[in-house]
Amino acid sequence: VMASMAHLQEEKLQLQDELLGLQEKLTARENDELSRSLQLQGQVETLKMKILEQAQEIGRLRSELWGVPNTAGRGSLGTEGTLTWSAGAPRVLQVAAPLMLQAWLQERLSQLQREVEETRAKLAELDLEVQQKTNRLAEVELRLKDSLAERAEEEERLSRRLRDSQETIASLKAQPQHIKYIIKTVEVESAKAKQALCESQSRNQYLQEPGGHQLGVTPWLLSQIMMYEAELERAHGQMLEEMQAMEEEKNHAIEEAFSRAQVEMKAVHENLAGVRTNLLTLQPALRTLTHDYNSLKRQVRDFPLLLQETLRSARAEIGQAIEEVHSTNRELLRKYRRELQLRKKCHNELVRLKGNIRVFGRVRPITKEDGEGPEAANAVTFDADDDAVLHLLHKGKQVSFELDKVFPPQASQKEVFQEVQALVTSCIDGYNVCIFAYGQTGAGKTYTMEGTAANPGINQRALQLLFSEVRAKAADWDYAISVSAVEIYNEALRDLLGKEPQEKLEIKLCPDGSGQLYVPGLTEFRVQSVEDINKVWGDG
Ligand code: ADP
Ligand code: MG
């Protein structure tokens, strides 16, 4: 439609140009006519001058012939000469030629004057005609313009309508039943447009028709007008064709849009069905999600409060637990002290029952050093029912000894230590304890007390026990263990860990009245473990 409009506009401009050309030609023609009439006027003037000259010549000739002064004036010339000179025949012959010339000239003049008059009238008429034609042209142009404008308006309206319709079709894809209605509306609109077009066409026709009939004075002008009209007709026909084409195009576009809309609508329907099923399946999920989300939101909102509450309760629980532990500790400590008390009592009881000094006997097995044969046999026998009795056959006479306990040759280091173990713990409870071995050289004192590295004796085991007991009580008690070593040899007391072992020491009674003995200046080493003690001994 826009293209057609542009084309029409172009056509219109072309027509206007042509009209302008025509007008120019008309003015040129007018000027031509005017110059011709002016030329004619000039000719007339020249002729008049000639006539005047002729008249003067005639007057001169007359005065020469009859002595009549020449009173020649333009008006009296003809009558005077005719009336006066018509009498004498011989003279008439002489003046016949000038008279005939004058008559001819007069006739010619009058003819020329008539012609001038006629030409003038014609010119005026032509002027009028040109004027009329120009007016007519202006009118026709105006109407053409109007009709073109109307047409453009109509086209604009139609295109707008078409656009609206397309938009409506697009927007109403989801409602197919409405499309048909809109198409119908568009069709009705286009019928209306057609009608308007026809009206404007007929108006054009009407406007163009009278041009040829009314005018038609000059064939050239007429042909020009005809040409112009033919041009107009052609333009009109073209316009009609354009309009037809546009109409067809519009119908085609509408049809296409409709079919496309139908196809799209179908696709949209299918999509819609898919979306609907999706929606149906999604709805429960959405519900669950919403529910979950809400509950989560609630939880999140309540979380700080919950956390605070939990922290408070946890703190309270911890506090309570600590309190419980404290009270339990107190209770345990109380029990422990009571237990300690009880043990002390038990120990005292034991000491009372078993006696402060206990004596054990240990018989070592026969060794290679004892030699072989009947001499290499034990001189002691044991009582199977009483482990506290030892029999000795001496010079055929049996002597029995009663001790606190007797260890046979097969007794292990561990068994021996078990008997003295209680004494070690008594030492931790604050009692003075002394374990010593007494016997003949080679009887097994060193073996019993020290033992071997693979099978340690009482010393090592007592120390192991001592330190493990101390470690177990370290939480509640502080123990300081120190080691010193002395030897009594040939009635002399010697410091085995001292720097000068030869120096003689003294044993003295404690001045606090406790009855304890002590050795002033005795070397002492603080020890933390069995290894420390071994080191001390190694250095010694
Ligand atoms: P003492 O120190 O009394 O002079 P020892 O302890 O040196 O005697 O013992 C002498 C020998 O007898 C050593 O070779 C020792 O290994 C051994 N002996 C001592 N008692 C036992 C025993 N109960 N079992 C095995 N061998 C022993
Ligand atoms: Mg020894």
- The mean pLDDT is 82
Distinct bound molecules: adenosine-5'-diphosphate, magnesium ion
Discrete helix count: 10
Net shape: rod-shaped
Q: What is the distance, rounded to the nearest whole angstrom, between the alpha carbons of the first and last residues?
A: 129 Å
* Tally of domains: 4
Stretches where pLDDT falls below 50 for ≥5 residues?
A: 68-95, 211-216
Tally the beta strands: 12
The Rg value, from CA coordinates, equals 82 Å
Helix content: 55-70%
Task: Write down the oligomeric state.
Answer: single chain
Order of strands, main sheet, comes to 2-3-4
Largest sheet: 3 strands, antiparallel
Topology:
Layout: H1 2-66, H2 77-85, H3 89-171, H4 176-208, H5 210-214, H6 219-354, E1 360-362, E2 380-382, E3 389-394, E4 397-402, E5 405-407, H7 413-428, H8 445-449, H9 458-472, E6 481-483, E7 486-489, E8 492-495, E9 504-505, E10 508-509, E11 517-518, E12 525-527, H10 530-539
Parallel strand pairs: 1-5
Antiparallel strand pairs: 2-3, 3-4, 6-12, 7-8, 8-9, 10-11
Helix pairs in contact: 1-3, 1-6, 2-3, 3-4, 3-6, 4-6, 7-9
Bound molecules: adenosine-5'-diphosphate and magnesium ion (MG).
The site of magnesium ion has 2 residues, from helix 8.
Subcellular location: Cytoplasm, Cytoskeleton
Protein name: Kinesin-like KIFC3
Keywords: ATP-binding, Coiled coil, Cytoplasm, Cytoskeleton, Motor protein, Nucleotide-binding
